[in-house]
Amino acid sequence: MTNPVMLYAKTRLHWGFIVRQIGASAAQPAYPIPPPTTVVGAFANPLARLLGLGEPQPARRKASRGTIDSFMECLLKATLNASAAILETSQGVGSVIYEEPARLLAAPFKGGGSYEKAVKSPILVGSQEILPVQGLGFASAPSAVLALSWIVEKESLERCIGRSLSRTELEVVAWNVYRIGSREGVSATVDAGVIEKDDMKLIGVGEGGFVSLLYQPASCVSPRRGGSMVTEVILPSLSYIEEAFLVPAELGSSSALIVPPSKLARFSIASDVCKALVPRDMPEFSLAFKSYS
After folding, report:
1. What secondary structure letter does DSSP report for 85?
2. Tens digit of pLDDT for each residue in 159-202?
3. Which CATH fold topology does 4-99+136-290 show?
């Protein structure tokens, strides 16, 4: 790790977001909080716009082995970790609750439905004709504020894009986060910024604890007394493998309902292959990650 940089944003959701679960059936449920891959994607979107990149073309998707775009793949490799949190707001608690998939839209796909059958049986909503499509679950979070944090190796990031990035450009990226998950998850950023290496400290096993509002990889940390409770949620990691994460939350939270904590959670590093980066002026954005170097 040579030159880590943290981009953060606090963004207010309009209604919620959709992030499809890995390996789900046609009626795909959503995650109750955006996973690390979605957080990286939230920052990657304005970065791509800054660089003048458009939507990935089919040929580029094929070149990246049919999984993710090569640009995103490169960014994920440069990422140390990414995380999110649900914040309390002056308008209310801003909780996020998972909603089950829309049964009406999923109905044509039960029992081996197909696009051809759907075309023959459109759904009428008022005077508008729509086609039945795959059922999608979503996370309902009207007016909730999410805190997003992305820690990335600056040199690796610059190799991905083929040029250097100034602090001003990184600030522009952080402030222009406007989409969480799929296209429907539109949000408005209310605060954002960049924290550079000189403004962070690195801690490991036995070097004291840290506080945070962000969810942490369960394989790296242990919760400590004196902070908020945590709830365990299974999310896809940066390598798209499902792992357990500890989410700071209020009493009553679960893997389907996240209520923002009234105070920060306390953690300590629990593995000698993990470390945490602690911003000196914003300790609530502290984030643990695996470090094999």
Report:
1. E
2. 888 889 999 999 999 999 988 876 567 788 999 999 999 999 99
3. Alpha-Beta Plaits (3.30.70)
Tokens found for residue 38:
């979605």
Q: What is the pLDDT of residues 42-58, one digit of tens each?
A: 999 899 888 887 655 54
Show the DSSP H helices in the chain as ranges.
36-50, 58-63, 70-78, 103-106, 115-120, 154-161, 167-175
Q: At residue 56, what are phi and psi to the nearest 5 degrees?
A: -60, 135
Pairing label, strands 216-217, 242-249: antiparallel
* CB atoms closer than 10 angstroms to residue 142: 14
Coil, strand or helix: which one is 109?
helix
Residue 101's alpha-carbon distances to 62, 150, 227, 235, in angstroms, are 30, 29, 34, 18
Please state whether beta strands 210-212 and 265-269 pair in parallel, antiparallel, or not at all (unpaired): antiparallel
Distance CA 105, CA 99 (A): 14
Contacts (Cβ under 8 Å, ≥6 apart) of 292: 273
Q: Is 154 exposed, middle or buried (0-12, 13-18, 19+ CB in 10 A)?
A: middle
Residue 245 CA to residue 84 CA, distance in Å, equals 11
For the chain, give every domain's residue range: 4-99+136-290
Report how far residue 211's alpha carbon sits from residue 214's, in angstroms, rounded to the nearest whole number: 9
Instruction: Kindly report the number of other CB atoms within 10 A of residue 79's CB atom.
Output: 22
Q: Which two tokens stand for residue 74?
A: 């490169």
Angle between helices 70-78 and 154-161 (to 10 degrees): 170
Coil, strand, or helix at residue 202? Answer: strand
Helix axes 167-175, 36-50, angle to 10 degrees: 120
Residues 217, 93: Cα–Cα separation, whole Å? 24
What pTM, to 2 d.p., does this model score? 0.80
